[in-house]
From TrEMBL:
Belongs to the LTA synthase family. GO terms for molecular function: hydrolase activity; metal ion binding; transferase activity. One of its GO terms (cellular component) is plasma membrane. Mn(2+) binds at E244, T286, D463, H464. Substrate binds at H403. The keyword Nucleotide-binding does not apply. Residues 236-530 form the Sulfatase N-terminal domain. It is found in: Cell membrane. Pfam families: Sulfatase. It is a multi-pass membrane protein. This is Sulfatase-like hydrolase/transferase.
Amino acid sequence: MNKRFTPKNGPIFLFSFILLLKSAVAWFVVFDEGLNWSMVFTEIPFFIIVFSLIEWFATKRKILYYMIANLCITLIYFAVLMYYKYYGVIATYHALQQVDKVTKVGESTYSLITPYYLFIFVDIVFFLFFMFRPKYIARWKERGSKRMNRMVLIVISAISFGLCIFNIWPNHASMSEIKKAESMGILNYEVYTLFADTTEKEEIIPSDEISQQKIDDLKGMVTPESPKYWGVDQGKNLIVVQMESFQNFLIGLTLDGQEITPNLNRLVKENTYFSNFYTNAGQGTTSDAEFAVNTSFYVPKNEPATSSDYMKKALPSLPKLLSGNGYNTATFHTNSVDFWNRTDLYKAIGFDKYYDQSFYGDDDHIAFGSSDEVLFAKTVPELTKIDAEKKPFYAMVISMSAHHPFRIPEEKYKMKLPEAYEGTLLGDYIRAQNYADYAMGQFLDGLKTSGIWDDSLVVFYGDHQGVPMYTLGSKERNLMEELIGHEYGYADMFNIPFIVHSPSGELPANIERTGGQVDILPTVANLLGVSVTQQLHFGEDLLNQETNLIPLRHFLPTGSFINDTSIYVTGKAYADGTNYSLNDNSMTKDGSTEAQFTSAQRLLNISNSYILQLPDQP
């Protein structure tokens, strides 16, 4: 091996330089400021500490230990890159809890890889090539057997440790995880989260200090004595349709004269449409949306609801509420019930029955199960059977074909894309949602033909964002700006449609006040004439409130929230955060208040505290 790759004073500086290049890739992708000199002073001290330990303790196979350390740190950087591309935040050890899901969403995961990300593995391939050639093994052993001067090791380790502490401690109070990682250094931040989670526990508010009135006060809600539209759909069925990755910008959108979602456009025109409606989903995406809608609670801080202790608890829920009022309840999904641990979710929230892949089979496969066409074709007859039992029913129907990365079979194409959109994530997304809308049209026809439509309160909403702004390249950003008329941003990404078909025909056509998925439970309960006064909830009846406050726990830094006019994104503290207008995503100066910032955090704390103190399921 050439000496320039193994300096006489040991490989510590070689491997530190290699990892510095890898950290540069991560910094370039993740941080707004991109590459700067602070990267050197935050990342290198960590490398030096790790490699000094190897120099101090390793007497044999030292180069092998260097390579193992190099591989482990490389994997951390790669995980940070991949996680940021979809979630927009820094991955921590909590993400390891979902590693088993990666293999099940392989195509979605692989689609996030940008070719230059693989650059960070080049040196590992290079080293492995030489490590297994006998004539180089002896040279590696010779070089690796040389030990650095102990005094030099002590000095550089002490300086590096001091720099790590200097980088971590002054920045530990920062609210934004992105800002915190940038100030501390990515690796320092990863270590910090390990210790912080054991020493900085979230306050648990005693259950006797938690009340609906306190929640209402924090949100600025005033409950009317005689709520409008109370019980206008009393005794009707409830059908909740959760649409995979569906964002609001698609509503009414045309491309080369083609309506992308003609069936949903008709729904919007003929029913009640909430245009300022936002997702409450977290890392569990689809299953988190199911949780938020059915409980009116917020998802946990560091993990999907279905992977948390929440699933052990006797959760108040919409299925339980309606079951207590004489309803049958069921949920329909073509994926396996084991995915995202839905077995526990459905038990925790109290559905009487679930239909999953074992019912739908795997015919006409798209994404993780049978297509939306199969979902809807097989669901309508089941709803007819349930309806024949002469009891009202609550059915949740979850579509899936338009799942990231949105690559549907060519025979499912229902529209022709302009050439500029071919081969892009945005183009694939539009085509997948156009197909999903086609399948939705068949479902609507089936509900109307069977007579269920006229006897049911039916609501439609998107589960979570489909096009993460962190994933788009410059070409796709330009295409998106042409489509929606302004720069694509947070306000667009989290905005999902909410459409309500009320058999009463009494609701207004359009409602522009801000809402979120936690608001669905109290809103439909009001229409069905079912009281929620004895059931703690964090949503509000959107037909009887004028103001709202929606904390965001995932995909944005801690402390972010949505109010009536803007999305607030936290900085190191409230003062240096940024407000983005809900109208056009432009930055605004006075879009939020510090009182709202404090209230949003308190709401999340109350939600978590209340659930964790509920009795366990019997």
